[in-house]
Amino acid sequence: MNSLKVLFVAAEVVPFAKAGGLADVAGSLPKALQARGLEVRVVLPYYRHVKRYFAQAPEPPEFRPQVAALKVPLGESKVSGMVHWSELPASQVPIYFLENEALYDRPELYGERGRDYPDSAERFAYLCRGALELCAALNWEPEVVHCHDWHTGLIPLYLRYDENTPFCASVYTIHNLAYQGWFAGEHLTVTGVSRWPKAVEDLLWDGRLNFMRAGLLNADCLNTVSKRYAEEIQTPRFGCGLEDLLHQRREVLFGILNGIDYARWNPATDPYLPAHYRPGKLEGKKVCKQALQEEFGLPVRAEVPLFGMVTRLATQKGLDLVAAVLDRLVARGAQFVLLGTGEPQFHEMFSQIAQRYPRQTGIRLAYDAPLANRIYAGSDFLLMPSQYEPCGLGQLISLAYGTIPIVRATGGLADTITEQGNRPNGFVFEEYDPEAFWRAIERGLAAYQDRKRWEQLMANAMSYDFSWEASAVEYERLYRYALERRAGSLKSQI
Ligand code: ADP
Q1: What is the model's pLDDT at position 294?
Q2: Minimum-distance ligand 1 atom for the alpha carbon of 18
Q3: 332 and 220 in a common domain
Q4: Cβ–Cβ contacts within 10 Å for residue 493, how many?
Q5: Total of domains in the chain
Q6: Straight-line distance from the first to the last Cα atom of the chain, in angstroms, rounded to the nearest whole number
Q7: What does pTM read for this prediction?
């Protein structure tokens, strides 16, 4: 079997630029695929964050500026841009950074003060076009382009309609269907699809552009990041208006669970922890809890249950449920720490909570990767009462750190956390409702009081393996299937 050539195009890739789980996937899966013998290359915008990474990281991988000069068609004109090269850390996976100062040299990835940058259509049209131009400039033809989320939705459209693009299949992964890349009709020019009437039809929806929908209509295969979410998005409750389209394409719609990179998420080696621990040798976890209580100015008490959250502050994450149970949690003597940033209304909500309960809650409204690790390690419980959760990485990380997740049974949370069977690893509730959430917390607290049961639960949690290897096998199968379908669709046109 030949080694497949796969191009990854994404708006976030760890460790260079990250806002959420997409970055973890785009930075980790290519390595697991390369380990299977696939030839993978990655493309990311050259954000200010990337420059900062290379300026500050203690041991950055090699960085070569100006590997290629591109002319990227953007609307009526061709924009000149540079491309820089490096490798994903601890791998030989090439990553190319598309430079365009006007579009990407900004303080944030997507927007500021809760508002997306007004030229987002242009920024990500450039990424899509630029990635394909780059392949031509490098004289490297991928067999599959793996697109991620709305930012890359134009790629399957170009591959289908533009005869100047290479013959290759496209796989489109939905990480979060709620963000679709909606833009006013006037942005059509910048995408360059006006010359293909059918492409315009696919891109316009109710007079506005929708990048996600264009990708979903034109990719050879679709997938999302858990089997449960792949089912859920075919229903009006989760489909964000695209449920009918997804249901029609269910033959090519799959669910492949995300993994985590255990080299990075490992309490036995994690450089950000004050002490290390491993299954069967958990003394270090107690030190981590003590240090976390100190870090947040909470009373240092080993026996008090400590609940943690590391999350984007968005409605999706079930923060109203957290607010609704917090008084009861505090009344039970528990401690609560949260690290998160996002929508202003939630900043306000958690600031008030911090003021109300200064001795029992610790709130950090920021993005802080090292602190996230210390919360995963130092907490007893991790709360994820999400309204929906395509996969969720927090619960997988917390399992690795022996921290017990309490989750709502949706998407990837339902596929990875179980309260039943012979290897329970957390607490699960069904209805999106504070009472159901509280009952799950109470079950958790009861287990916490029972030392033997708690130790078993922690041992179970740490014994789960959600590494990328298993998912990489499924992705390779998906790529081959996409190629078959692409070849088939070409034959049917002849
Ligand atoms: P989503 O992609 O919806 O944000 P996931 O659970 O899939 O949710 O991924 C979230 C990732 O981002 C996790 O790795 C989590 O640790 C990290 N994260 C979220 N918020 C923060 C924050 N404020 N500081 C540090 N890491 C964060």
Answers
A1: 98
A2: 12
A3: no
A4: 5
A5: 2
A6: 27
A7: 0.92
